[in-house]
Every structure is written in structure tokens, then in C-alpha cells.
Automatic annotation (TrEMBL):
It is found in: Cell membrane. Residues 273-337 form the Rieske domain. The chain crosses the membrane at residues 62-83, 95-116, 163-183. It is a multi-pass membrane protein. It comes from Frondihabitans cladoniiphilus. Residues 1-54 are annotated as: Disordered. Iron-sulfur subunit of the cytochrome bc1 complex, an essential component of the respiratory electron transport chain required for ATP synthesis. The bc1 complex catalyzes the oxidation of menaquinol and the reduction of cytochrome c in the respiratory chain. The bc1 complex operates through a Q-cycle mechanism that couples electron transfer to generation of the proton gradient that drives ATP synthesis. It holds the Pfam family Rieske. InterPro entries: QcrA_N, Rieske_2Fe-2S, Rieske_2Fe-2S_sf, Rieske_Fe-S_prot. Its main location: membrane. Belongs to the Rieske iron-sulfur protein family. This is Cytochrome bc1 complex Rieske iron-sulfur subunit.
Amino acid sequence: MADHDDETPATGSAVEKSEPRQASAGTAVVPTDTFENPGHPPHKLRITDTDPKEEKSAERQVSGLFFLSIIFSCAAVAAYIVFPIKTGDIASVRLNTLFLGLGIALGLLSIGIGAVHWSKTLMSDREITEMRHLTKGSEVTRTKAAEVFTLGNQESGFGRRALIRNSLFGALIAFVLPGVVIFRDLGPKVDPNVVLKHTIWKKGTHLTLDPSGIRVKAADVTLGSAFHIIPETLLDSDDLLEEKAKAAVLLMRLDPSDLHEPAGRENWQYNGIVAYSKICTHVGCPVALYEQQTHHLLCPCHQSTFDVTQNCEVIFGPANRPLPQLPITVDADGYLIAQSDFHEPVGPSFWERQR
């Protein structure tokens, strides 16, 4: 009996093996008492943890990288101005792209290197163990989340390291400046209201098919049809794309009895043929879908819908004003012509404008 007792391991020892417990579905569960938790390895202090001078030096290096990012971002803006793109000069394109790209890339790279250096030398690097648990939106969970953010702030030193924090904010603000300058430069050089208020349509300009430029006869426009129209003078314009973006028109023919035009616009159509700007008044997408049964025009970008029978009033979607109407008539040969330009600005309505 004594020999038998000596061979029996003590209950709860690290080498004890128990029968695996069974889950409700019959799947074996690995027992938890077959190994010991080794714990965390000994924590090794960094030089910045033991030497205040090294800590200050690392802080200056991180903030220096953030300040360097500011310099590179400003340099990108300067390069965009110093090396402008000239029409027909491929060398100017290369120089502009090279220095602009270098400035933006180095600005972002400096932020990245600074953030990594910060985390490796100054943020807390102690190993921790977190028990997994179900995430619930209870008050306890929210309180715990707030504690985690507070702890993260304490460990990173974000709240108390003013030099790093302020230089990081400056770097992030400066980094967006090249994008702001570039995209602003894509816009018109003058008041957008002035640019969008006038197109190349004028009295007597023939309506022609897009893109062929063939003139359109009123007799060829049948009920329920829709045509994409450009002014005849567009093909002779030096700024073809820019002018087309403002002057493109949709031409449709309805039964005149279906049209409910406001006072003063009764003569803007010809025998039920109406012409409206193709440029959506939301953000300028091309309105290209016409439903001949309901007489609705649909913008495919954000689903703004316009009712042609009601002077293209908005009946659905984010657009907040009707499509501008182009007054039309016919010439002596029966071809459709414009009576004048649009009487209001075309395109998006977010520009500051007086109506």
C-alpha cells in the first residue's frame, strides 16, 4: 500500500492530468490545470527610463521630427508655386510633380518616424495581460473605456508632454496645406458666381447633337425622346471641356398640355420641346437619365430627381433648386436655336450667389 501511495502524485500538482471536461456540444475542453502560468518575462528598462537626460533628448528628437514634417509640408506648397505647370511644357510637369511629391512624402514620413520613435522610447512598454470578455454597452463598460483612455494618456505622456503634443498638432495641420493649395488651385480664378452665370449660349446659337455637332430640327424631336445637346459654337471654342461643362443641355419633347410653365416662360419652349441644363444643381454631376412615362430626370450621382412638367422642380434628393431652362425657338429652316443664354447660374448651388 505504501508503494502505491508514493507513486500517486499530489492533488493539484503541475503534472496532474485530469479527464478532459466536455462542452455542451460534446467537444473536449482542454483542462486548465495541466500547466502553470509562467507569468511575464522580467521587464527590461530602457535608457530613457533610467536617464532623465536621455528622456529629454528623445523628446526633443520626436518633436524635431514633427517640426521637420511642418517644414516639408510648407516646402511642398512652395514647390507648387515655384515650379508651376505650363501648358505644353512636359518638363514643368515633371519638376512640379517631383518636388511636390517629395515634400508631401517627406512630410508624412517624418510624422510616421516621429510617432514610432515616440512609442519606442517614451511611451510605457510594460507587458500586460487582459482577460477576454464580452463587450457590452453598459455603464460599467463605458466607465472602463474611459479608464482605458485615461491610462493610455498617462502611459503615452500625451497630456503632459506639451512639446511633443504641440509639434504633432502642428505637423498634422501643416500636412494638409499642400492638398488645400492644390485643390483650391483647381477652381476658377475668379468669382464662381460670375463664371457659372454665363455660358457660350447666345441668341441664334444652333442646338447640335453631342458629340457629332449635327444640327437638330424640331420635326425630328418626337414625343418621349431625349437628346444630349451642345451649342454649335462649342466645337470652335479654345476651352472646349470647360465650356461644355457649363453649356451641356438635355432636350425633350412632351405633350404641350403636360407642361406647367410659370408666367413669363410660356415662350421658352417650342411645341412641347424644352431644353434644360444637364448639370445637376447639387454638386454638378451630369443629369442623364430621362423617364418618358413620368417625365422625370434623374441624377445618377445622388438620385436628385427633377419633374420636367413642373419646370424641372426638385421632387426628390439633395438638390435644392430646379435645373435652369434654356429658352429655345426655331430658325427659318426649322432648326432649333437658342433665344438667349441661361437666365440664372448653372451647376451646383453651394456657391455664394444671389438669386
